[in-house]
Every structure is written in C-alpha cells, then in structure tokens.
Amino acid sequence: MPTDLTVSVVNHNGREALLALLASVEREVEAAGVDAETVVLDNASEDGSAAAVRERFPGVRLVVQPFRAGFGANHNRILAETDGAAVLLLSHDAELEPGALAVLLRFLEATPRAGAVAPRLRYPDGRAQASAWRFPSPATAALGTLTLHRAGVVQSTGDEPRRVDWAMGAALLLRRGALDEVGPFDEGFFMFSEETDLCRRLADAGWETWFVPAATAVHHESALRAEVPRERIAEEWRSRHRYWRKHHSAAGARAAAVLTGTQYAARAGIAAAARRVRPGSFEPSFPARMRLHARSAWRGPAERGLRELAEDWNDEHAGTAEAVR
Q1: Is the pLDDT of residue 59 over 70?
Q2: Banded model confidence at residue 318, pLDDT cuts 50, 70, 90
C-alpha cells in the first residue's frame, strides 16, 4: 500500500545540518501521526554523511550515490522509487520547526487544487527569509527594476495563507497526483529555477501553489554560497535564461534579461556609492557581485558553473565504486 508521505532529502557534504534536519523530521512525523518514509540521497559527500545517517537514523532509507548530480535529478530519483501520496522536499540545510509538518499536511488535504504548499522560511537568527515570488517574466522584471526588487515581487509575506506563483524547493510539500499530471523536475536545470519551472507547469495545468506561514522551517543555507560564488552565480543565470526561453517568446526572454540586468547594475551603483559614504556598511564584494549578476543577466553566464564542477568531480572519481565517506 502507498505511504501517506514521502520525505525526500538531498544531501551534499552537510553532515551536521543533515542530522539536525532528520531529527526534526522524526519528531514531526511522530507528532503528525502520519505513515511516512524518509529517503536521504547522499550526493557523493566526502564528510561522512552517509555513515552518520546509518548510525543515528537506521530507519531512514539511504541512497548512497557515488556521483554528483543536480537538484532536480536527485529528487527525481527519489520520486521514481517511492509512492507517497504527498512528497515533502527538503534540502539538507533546512530544519522543520514544531508543528510545521502537520500544518502543511492539513492544508494540502483541505485545499483540493493545491499542488504545492510552502512553509515560511527563516534564518537561524529569526529573520524572515524571502521564499516565494512572482514568476520571472518581462512584467515581473520591469516591476523589479522600478522598485530594485524591494516591492511587488516577493510574495512570502503576511500571516495568512496566500496563493503565490512559485516557492523555494528547500522545503516544499507536493501533491503526488499533481506531479503525476505535469511530470517531475526538468533535469535540464542542474540547479536553480527547477522549482520555478515545476510551479509554472503546475499553474499551467490548473494547480495552485500556496504559502502557509503558520508552518515554519529554518533554512541555514549551504556553504556553497560562500565556497564557489562565481560558479553559483553562473549556474543561477544559466538556469534563469533557460526558464525564460522555455516559458516566453524570444523577444520576451530578451526583454526580461535586459530589465533584470539593469536592476542589478543599479543596485551595484547604489551599493558602491553607499560604501564611499558609509565605509563598512556593505560587505566588500557586494558591488562586484551585483555587477557580475548584471553581466550574466544581459549576456548569459560565460563562466563555468556548478554543473561543470560536478562533472569535473565525477571525471576524477570515475570507476570509484563509492565516494569516500
């Protein structure tokens, strides 16, 4: 018989955060009284993550993958091997707060056209983290340029449930029936924008995405942001350009790119000016990063991205039966 819930966790070198996440999942599944299977796909970690899961959480199904793949491909593997009526996607750097799972499941059950339900995300220090937005489009890009992304684009606000366009995949509850209708993640996205694309396809098929702030998860964010910033930015814009081309005309995709690049260029100029007036008020690399975002939006990323880093690692470890753990 199918389970009520599949918890799909993808981990990459996040041992301590992963263990905290699994402890929160174990607590939440028990509190919700739901029949659940938790599956962890370890994406060729080298920090002992797999061994730690075996030791601390023997009831968790562990998929030890000796090669590195993208976000969508990894979750798709779990989706193909499970049958939960609902699927909770979790990144290893997320952690469910008490009561979150029960709230999400109740909302999904009570809202027949909800294909995706997202909790509120917050940083470890308690600050709210933006986690739901309008679909990337020429109109959204124009609005973001006018407001420098400060108004009208982020939708994860307020204290009541609200329909949103798309929500971050770090913590996202999906209805299996909706996935069966629209298909799994598009693996042409290695990382970034794959959940945006999925929510777009859900919306096109008449399904809804909801932000439910009564459920909360802490998102620690991966060290990847600091470790490989240029490759991360390159992959982000490669995916965004793919999304624009997939869901808009050539003219629409180009308009979105130009407008979005202009927004980042303006932010770079403002940040650089502010640093001269108030030294130390911005991190030193911020204007440079905004300029890189602008160039990547205008022209497309020229740099190697996260896909290439993964491919390099896979080539170096070709023929290895299992990654070092």
Answers
A1: yes
A2: confident
Is residue 325 assigned to a domain? no
Domain boundary among 189, 205, 222: 222
151 shares a domain with 51: yes
147 and 57 within one domain? yes
Q: Residue 289 pLDDT more than 90?
A: no
* Domains held by the chain: number: 2
Same domain (yes/no): 243, 202: no
Separation between Cα atoms, residue 185 and residue 75, nearest integer Å: 8
Domain enclosing residue 281, as ranges: 227-316
Q: What is the pLDDT of residue 228?
A: 62
Q: Using one digit for the tens of pLDDT, what is the confidence trace for 132-175?
A: 999 999 999 998 888 876 678 999 999 999 999 999 999 999 99
Instruction: Label residue 243 exposed, middle or buried (CB < 10 Å: 0-12, 13-18, 19+).
Output: buried
Q: Are residues 151 and 235 in the same domain?
A: no
Average of per-residue pLDDT values in the chain: 90
